[in-house]
Amino acid sequence: MVQQNLLRFAGEFTIRVNNSLLQLRRGASPLPPAELLRWKIALGTATCSIVSGSNAVANLLDMTAMVTLIRMDVEGYWASKVFGDSAQPLLASARSGETEIWRLAGTVLTSDQQAEFRAGIDKWHRENPRPEDVVGARASGFAATVTANSGSKDERSGSLFGLLRLDPLSGLDPATREIAQSRLLAERALFVLQQMPQLLRWQMELLTINSTELPAVQQVVANSGKIADSVERFSKVAEQLPGQLRTEREEIIKAFSAQEKELTPLFAEIHQSLAAGTQMSASLNTTMGSFDALMKRFGVGEPPPPGPPAPPGEPFRIMDYAKTAAQLEVTARQLTEMIHTLDQTLGSPNLSKLSAQVGPVVEQAQAGGKAVVDYAFWRAVFLVAIMLAAALAYRFVSVRLASPARSNSKQS
Question: Which of 29, 279, 312, 344 sits at a 20 to 30 Å CA gap from 364?
Answer without folding.
Answer: 344
